[in-house]
Amino acid sequence: MPDFDCSRIRNFCIIAHIDHGKSTLADRLLELTGTVTRREMRDQLLDDMELERERGITIKARAVAMYYEHEGTRYELNLIDTPGHVDFQYEVSRSLLCCEGALLLVDAFQGVEAQTVANAYLAMEHELHIIPVINKIDLKHARIEEVLEEMHQSLGIDPDDVVKVSAKTGLGVPDLLRAVIDRVPSPKGDPTGPLQAMVFDSHYDDYRGAITYVRVMNGRIEPGQKIRFLKGGTNHEVLELGQFRPRPVRCDSLGTGEVGYLVCNIKSLDLVHIGDTVSTAHHPAQPLPGYRVPKRMVYCGLYPADGQDFDELREELTKLSINDPSFEFVPETSEALGFGFRCGFLGLLHMEIIQQRLEQEADLDLVQTAPNVTYEITTKNGEVLEIHRPQEVPDTGSIDEFRQPIVRVNIIVPTESIGPVMTLCQDRRGEPKGNEYLSPSRAMVTYELPLAEVIYDLHDKLKSITRGYGTMDYELIGYAPADLVRLDILVNGKRVDALSFICHRGDSDRRGRQVVKKLKSEIDRHMFEVAVQAAIGSRVIARETVPAMRKNVTAKCYGGDITRKRKLWAKQREGKKRMKSVGNVDIPQKAFLAVLDTGEKK
Amino acid sequence: MRSKAVPFDATSSAPRGAMPRAAYVHVPFCRRRCGYCAFTVLAAHDAWIPRYLAAVERELADLGAPREVDTLYFGGGTPSHLPRDAMRRLAEATTDRFPLAENGEWTVEANPADVTRDWCRTVRERGVTRISLGVQSFSPRKLRVLERDHDARRIDESLRLLFDAGLDVAIDLIFGVPGESVEEWDGDLRRAVAASPHHLSTYGLTFERGARFWGRRARGDITPESEDSEAELFERAIDVLTSAGFEHYEVSNFARPGHRCIHNETYWLGRSYHGVGPGAAAYVDGRRMMNHQGVLAYIRRVERGESPVVDWEMLDAESRARERLVFGLRRLEGVARGAFQTRTGHSIDDLAGSAVERFVSLGLLEDDGSIVRLTRRGLMVSDAMWPDLLRPEVAAPREPARSNRAENAP
Ligand SMILES: Nc1nc2c(ncn2[C@@H]2O[C@H](COP(=O)(O)OP(=O)(O)OP(=O)(O)O)[C@@H](O)[C@H]2O)c(=O)[nH]1
Ligand code: SF4
Ligand SMILES: [Mg+2]
């Protein structure tokens, strides 16, 4: 495929709150443009990662090139389907930089939700042309008029600009395609200028090395060309170029405004940086602005269940970080868990996804510690410490000020839940920052809250208070001093470093009791009594006892039982190896998440 | 894990050449299946009995020339469920191949519901010396929960018939049946002692895959007793029976002096034995073998002239010694260091010295320097010790791979 005249290229992404139908709309567009035949079609075709299908959500943004004939002219449409969950907003930001337009989808029943607002603002900041869309108009309970009002109220959208579709039935989708061609500006760039291409994604293929995804801003790329990654400063020869349609298909060149991938023989994992600029090796152009890597919100320790897998875990983390630069990891050690990594994530779902990808894609068995946020401490002698894990908190005596991250949280709720939601935020030490009615039935409540509270259980609580209708979005605004303490957990008198956590002094008794109770239920009975204690410094604030085992004896051992039992017992020895032992006490892997337990049944 | 055939090693403790002095025959028929049962049995399939008998006769014949044994054991299933002719035929085929030595022990398991004067005479005539009676309980409630098909009156009657016939009597009791109180269990123990059997075995109710109780428990339809209350019942049994003059000689077994089950001691002492019938295990020449568990599969294999053995393994000398240590320790008189070394070629201290020491310090084992044995507490939690005795001990905690290992590599 030759490079296309810029005036006939449209680059756009689909953004929305989670589940508003982005990937389903992408299905219809793929179908209507003939990119995918009906026979090849399946629901949310672009969600092809195992985890995406399992959970029914999009995790990675996906780019697809489509060709479409409109009024006698052939257009190249580059679409990027983005994830809706707040933890993956970084994927959205990156996609926006490759596009001139965005379809902002709003569910005709759910209406405007927290990520609708957040993503719309992101698109506006990037000066994208927004095409507002109400989706799911086929729903019996669609409340189109009200949703139009919510869109107007919260985002200043003119109801006349809104395209109404059903991604499920395809109703209105041809009109939407026409709107894309008519309203999304074509890319502006200099086809004859020096090559500048934005690296917006990449992944690692075991056979071909790093596959780099680019949007060409100026100039063009061809196979055989010598290119340079400006940030990495390395030169490579382009072996293959292609577009995603949606499967990778080779092409002869990528011109200005186009989106595709390039393969060089890059086997070293640290040469490709997302946000880097590709230019020519001989006359490199100026680098593009690139991306601001988002701030990691939560940290946790990841350890191989079997200490032997340490190197493998490092390798797999490195591979994953090529595909997802938004998490970071550094080696750490723990007395209880041995050698592992402290990893930083954008949120809890992000953490869960990375951990699952490691277990599923790389077949690694992991022990994860409870997540925590990054704290700041000023010591008595004026030193400022950044605390990524509870073990690093110094003695209370040497702390001058203990600070925690504060986020501004926007919560969109049905009006009848405003009261309970405000009580919830108040309980979590939040400060009210405003209420705004979006329509007679929905309002946005804004609070400033400690990030740690948001991570701990705010989201679950919000969902249960609002019966699923409340949604929230948050952004970091800074650090504030608070009365915080480090709680240690002792098992038979020995401190288990990986179980320490930081909490507000006022919550410490309750949290301490919950954690030791949870641990009691996770730790099997041993041949001796096991004491589990929570302590602040040397003061014990909670204690539970796992009583010694009373009866564990096989009654029948005759003939064939001998072999069966011998094998069974020998296997149990192997099983014990998988546990982490502190002193003589075996602690199962999942007990290291006991700190997360809120003491309530979910 | 099945090991490959390895040449027999000269240091082995296995009684090579020494032919087994014990034989077990499995009789897989029952009138109906009890709720807790996961054994190799066919309930209400008596039509298969003739083919089963023929298969056993053939398996016995394939074992070669007749050899005398000291003990025979007919287990099940319910051997007493066999019609009289079938029982005669099975007994005859067995003693043809395995003539019982003078003063030998021959046990047959029986269901109280099957024991009649006529049945007693039949087995006595063939040479049977000992009956293991599946009493399970004297409590009508427990018998009902267990889905047994006899009542307490039948038990008394069958006991009287057996004693009258001059047979040694062993009875089985189950404890920890859902809803069982200490009083109910005491009642069972009292009546068992009063019945004055020669031998008594007692088992906590277990939930096994394949049994109806397994599914019922999963559905929440039946709830096992707690670990603590099971422990209480078990300890109660030990106290009551030992003070009534029974010797507690293995985890679950109690005997009047001189009336231990010699056949079962064969298993625990690591001696060899033959096994015939579906699912039967054998230990011959250091090789552990297991016949196909499926009754029909067993019959078909034998009919086709194939070996019924589907699983076997050859243990090396060390594994054999470890196994011997574990099953030996389940006998309450314990394991004597000297005898153990002579028989196995391994010393207890080399195999598991530090584990033994640790368990002694936890009060689970007793060690007077020459004999190692279970304490009462050790007996109660003994399964938790065996993993450490069956596997070689790791010398020191392993240093995890260092992050700079790659750089240090040559
Ligand atoms: N009735 C109806 N259901 C729809 C429509 N569009 C999407 N859905 C359903 O809405 C659910 C979510 O659809 P997705 O396309 O996965 O939503 P998404 O926005 O891509 O979700 P994330 O990528 O996880 O943020 C699915 O069950 C779809 O079948 C529609 O027009 N009408
Ligand atoms: S428990 Fe005994 S009698 Fe009941 S079915 Fe099982 S083998 Fe037969
Ligand atoms: Mg999606």
Q: What helical percentage do the residues of chain A reach? A: 10-25%
Please mark out the parts of chain B with pLDDT under 50 across 5 or more consecutive residues, or reply none: 1-16, 395-410
Widest sheet, order of strands of chain B? 9-10-8-7-6-5-4-1-11
Distance between the termini of chain B: 37 Å
**CATH top level class name of the largest domain in chain A:** Alpha Beta
Helix content of chain B: 25-40%
Radius of gyration of chain A, taken over Cα atoms and rounded to an integer in Å: 27 Å
- The class by helix and strand makeup of chain B works out as alpha/beta
**Top CATH class of the largest domain in chain B:** Alpha Beta
Q: How many helices of chain A does DSSP assign?
A: 12
Amino-to-carboxy terminus distance of chain A: 54 Å
Let me know the number of strands of chain B: 17
The overall strand count of chain A is 31
Please, what is the CATH homologous superfamily of the largest domain in chain A? P-loop containing nucleotide triphosphate hydrolases
- CATH homologous superfamily placement of the largest domain in chain B: Aldolase class I
What coarse outline of chain A follows from CA principal-axis ratios? globular
Largest interface: A-B, 35 and 51 residues
Oligomerization category of the chains in this entry: heterodimer
Largest sheet of chain B: 9 strands, mixed
Radius of gyration of chain B: 23 Å
